[in-house]
Amino acid sequence: MPPAIEIHDLHKRYGDVHVLRGINLSVAPGEGVVLLGANGCGKSTLLRCLNRLTPHDGGTIAILGTEISTLKRAGLRAVRHQVGYVFQHFNLVPNVSVFQNVLFGALGRNRHGLLRTWSAFASAEDRDRAMTCLERVGLAEKAAARPSEISGGQQQRVAIARMLMQAPSIVVADEPIASLDPKAGREVLELLFRIVSEEGLTVLCTLHQLDLAAEFGQRIIGMKAGRIVVDGAAGDLPRADLDDLYHGAVRVDQPAGTVTADLVPA
């Protein structure tokens, strides 16, 4: 079985700013990895490169054995379907129900497009699956509510249910608890890692909380200045090595005309 994620000598630049500087990374199927690093170290850019939301400039990325850099539209869509994202900002559609937001997770695998993900037109199978996903995150009773009517922690649970609706093999969670208070954040993280474990999914999750990283991650990867400088089993890494990821970190201003990105000096 190929690695879930295989990255070799990955580089990304924004103009004169060298963001990713030769990243090498292999993540096994079913592995739970936490990615650490100060703001500006390049970790968010790395996550966006994984499904070519941001194109890389050099090196290779393979997802489940498929190298993505030369894929055409249909092939790239198939790879993206295998990677579910959970973001810091929940990205829910505000003027529709929680249930409808979860149904939107079926869009990538629905051959009939957006129309068939609307509740009135969705298949009975998709409607049943959406409710099952809400039950998995403990929010079946909130199916008819709108996002504004539930808490931030509950909104992130809806986003996790939407990701489950996609039926991915890999979950990428980009600071999923950064917008939540500590209690709600821990509950969401416990839920996310329990579900990916039960489903046998691969997870790559960025965090800033070192204690939570050590508690939930099987493996911790640390980035600094566009490079991986720490990589090991969560229980084997000295705390000083993790603390050092946040000491002496440098961030430069975004060059004009580029998209928002984590940036490090060339």
TrEMBL record:
Ranges of residues in domain ABC transporter: 5-250
The cross-references to SMART domains, in alphabetical order and at most eight, read: AAA (SM00382)
Alphabetic keyword roster: ATP-binding, Cell membrane, Membrane, Nucleotide-binding, Translocase, Transport
What the entry lists under Pfam families is as follows: ABC_tran (PF00005)
Q: Name one GO molecular function term.
A: ABC-type phosphonate transporter activity
- Identify the Gene3D superfamilies for this entry: P-loop containing nucleotide triphosphate hydrolases
Top-level lineage group: Bacteria
One Gene Ontology CC term in the entry: membrane
Q: What is this protein identified as? A: Phosphonate ABC transporter ATP-binding protein
Q: Which organism is it from?
A: Paracoccus gahaiensis
By which gene is this protein encoded? phnC
